């Protein structure tokens, strides 16, 4: 599929520039730390679309002894993640094809990875994520809205990358339909190179169970 192959090639070729921009990007660090504060020590965490390990690095620095599994389709990003968060377990895999046992993780991160998935793929992935989360398990989800879907150049890559701009309303409905209740939604402006502004959306959610252990 062209949009995937071109996107991954761009990430492979520009992984260092991406790492340099986002590994310590303060607006995202702040959101990640706020979510980490909600997590108990020693839990199992899944980081999907882990990139160069910018989330994983924050998880390790938190000192909570998390067990971390990271997945990304870019081999070069995985190499960087292994350097940035050596305590994590990282593998190169398509997040659309993941398969884990039910209730395998206490928390899942989807940090700006659904921006490369269409609506059908997002629905399928979030259904899986809900299944992989334990009862009361937590989800960190971030994405952008405000532009049209398509290939575009970025601040870290002159090679084009395909982006989907999902609406917060549609993502919220998918979450709720899959027993993931919203803890908090935050938005912040992101200035683009062309002077336009897109909106970064951050959602903290948790899997809901009734007292008898069934999904609400």
Automatic annotation (TrEMBL):
Keyword hit for Methyltransferase: yes
UniProt xrefs under InterPro entries: Methyltransf_25 (IPR041698), SAM-dependent_MTases_sf (IPR029063)
UniProt keywords, alphabetically: Methyltransferase, Transferase, Ubiquinone
Signal peptide range in chain numbering: none
GO MF terms held by the record: methyltransferase activity
Gene3D superfamilies listed in its UniProt record: Vaccinia Virus protein VP39
Family matches, as Pfam families: Methyltransf_25 (PF13649)
UniProt domain Methyltransferase: residue ranges: 45-137
GO biological process: methylation
Entry protein name: Methylase involved in ubiquinone/menaquinone biosynthesis
Organism: Desulfosporosinus meridiei (strain ATCC BAA-275 / DSM 13257 / KCTC 12902 / NCIMB 13706 / S10)
